[in-house]
Amino acid sequence: MLKISAKAIFLSLFFVGVIVSFYLVNLAEQGVAYGQEKVVYALPYPGILPDHPLYFAKVVRDKLMEWMTRDYLKKADLYRLFSDKRVNMATFLIKKGKNKLAITTFSKGEKYFLKIPSLLLDSKKQGVAPSSELIDSLKLSNAKHRELATELLKSVSPSQIAAVEEILKLNQEIKNKLNQL
């Protein structure tokens, strides 16, 4: 008859625990949380936030850059940068407790992003198709915006939920247009 000692059982359970913990740590490093995958896309540092007194200078600079950029693909990439920065600004503003300003800023970011698909179509009409890398990065950015807007829903007051849902509708519209390219 096979005799199993308490020491052997303890060691077996210990090794199973170690293996399971390595598996869980690996899942956490991959960005998996509560059955949902995190989008792996780094948003750029936003710089000056809309609540700063010198923010107007940043807006003027952005308008100048937008006006001076004539190439459709470069302008699309510029709009993505502006959009990503505003979405990241919104996350910083939420942390500061400025939910209303965060929602407005997030919305402006999505409106910048909404301009991109038409620029890409215009570029195609002129014979310059966007690269697959650009399309992929736009889709990743859009997915990251959706993820952050969904998180924003959890931290706003009930009266602000409708505004965040409008952002999510814009995001879905952008996704649909990107998928048509």
From TrEMBL:
<feature type="domain" description="DUF5667">
    <location>
        <begin position="47"/>
        <end position="129"/>
    </location>
</feature>
<dbReference type="InterPro" id="IPR043725">
    <property type="entry name" value="DUF5667"/>
</dbReference>
<protein>
    <recommendedName>
        <fullName>DUF5667 domain-containing protein</fullName>
    </recommendedName>
</protein>
<dbReference type="Pfam" id="PF18915">
    <property type="entry name" value="DUF5667"/>
</dbReference>
